User: What shape does this take?
Amino acid sequence: MSLPDIYHSFLHDLVLTKWYEYLAVFSGIISVWYSRKENVLVYPTGLLNTIIYIYISVSGNLFGEASVNMYYTVMSILGWYMWTRKNVKDEVILHITKASRKEWITHILFFMTFYVVIFITLTYFKKFFGTVIPWADAFASATAFTGMWLMTKKKVESWYWWIATNIASIPLYFVKHYVFTSVYYFVLLIMAIAGLLEWVNREKSVKYVS
Assistant: This one.
């Protein structure tokens, strides 16, 4: 596909974008901004985003994407709880930390397990999942699952997985004609890189204070 073709396809699909997809995109961007700032509002704004995307995905027969957003929704509720937990001194318990080597191994195994399960599911039940690219969808979903899990634990490494998710999702949503969502993931990629840098500095500050 030539650049003019890509441009015209982008404009055509952009016109067809529904108002609620715009709402989902903007709430998602706000959610990531709050996550960068380690603000618990990441979760209520994120819930608005994921609930809308469940509807969008189901409406478009994108059941793989719908399952990812269902997972996001559940983990957002869990993360909301974990980020607001306090000790007897009314101090927040959970702080930004880096993963140990042992934790890294656990994270990779977590990712690989979800990748294999999702890939096999999408491959063998492809006709039920609408427009799907098994290896790409499995990668985007498995990295997202891992990133969301680590975000609830305030792990710096969550941003690495988000960066991978965003890189995979930009072309993935474009070829599925959700171009505004594709642009959304490009914005999230930039914000994820900024979030990683900010959390690295915050982790150092917490370590220095403690």
User: Anything to note?
Assistant: The chain has a mean pLDDT of 88.
